[in-house]
TrEMBL record:
Keywords: Sigma factor, Transcription, Transcription regulation. This is RNA polymerase sigma factor. It comes from Paraburkholderia dipogonis. Residues 31-99 form the RNA polymerase sigma-70 region domain. Belongs to the sigma-70 factor family. ECF subfamily.
Length: 230
């Protein structure tokens, strides 16, 4: 079996493939758990629907299990799995497009320089009070809605680069596109997200730092308590 594996496979990946091919289902479970989060995010970014992403990922895993004997190691295991997931997602999109008589198109954009974008602006505060947890959930939901609004070519690049923190080379290999296209789409995705979020802030401006509810009650109670001590 040694000739099956090239230098693109790590020793750990080569071992897990050998175990799966030997009929070890526990090894395949380990493979899924290792790659689940990244592959689910990739499927979710492509299909924009939680249930569809889960279904596509499950089908891709089944295809991976059946095709693993033909895996020659000319790409990393992570890249190979990413391609299977994307193929499954794009196949579903094409079938849906035919049903709707619409052909999905990936828009082209010019190459641009890299810029930074923080997907989670509250990432530095992991131990949050309940109010902060609610705020984090709301911000995350807002970012997900805005990301869903991007064209699929930009969404997938953004998720792999900014969320999964894959390199430009890894992203290009996973998506089967040139590195220059990865740079270009990553830049444009961040730019479009910034513009979209800026519009949202302007729309919600009057509601920012809204005062009421328990904030009001807490302040009133504290002041009354201090007054009683006078």
């Amino acid at each position: 079996m040694a000739d099956v594996y090239s230098s693109r496979l790590t020793d750990a990946d080569a071992e897990i493939v050998r175990r799966i091919l030997a009929g070890d289902l526990a090894a395949f479970e380990l493979l899924m758990r290792r790659h689940n989060r990244r592959l689910y995010r990739l499927a979710r970014a492509t299909l924009r629907n939680d249930a569809d992403a889960e279904d596509a990922l499950q089908d891709a895993y089944l295809k991976a299990f059946r095709a693993l004997a033909q895996f020659r190691g000319d790409a990393t295991l992570a890249t190979w799995l990413s391609r299977l997931v994307l193929n499954e997602c794009f196949g579903r999109m094409r079938r849906e497009a035919r049903r709707q008589n619409v052909l999905p198109m990936l828009p082209h954009c010019p190459d641009d320089e890299e810029m930074s974008f923080d997907m989670d602006p509250m990432n530095a505060h992991d131990d949050c009070a309940p109010d902060q947890e609610v705020s984090r959930a709301q911000i995350r939901a807002l970012l997900e809605r805005k990301l869903d609004a991007l064209p699929v070519g930009f969404r997938t690049v953004f998720v792999l680069r900014s969320v999964e923190e894959m390199s430009i080379e890894e992203t290009a290999e996973s998506l089967g596109i040139p590195e220059a296209t990865v740079r270009s789409r990553h830049f444009r995705a961040r730019q479009m997200l910034r513009e979209s979020l800026s519009e949202e802030v302007e729309r919600l401006g009057p509601q920012l730092f809204e005062f009421g509810g328990r904030y009001c009650d807490r302040i009133v109670a504290a002041v009354l308590a201090r007054l009683r001590q006078l």
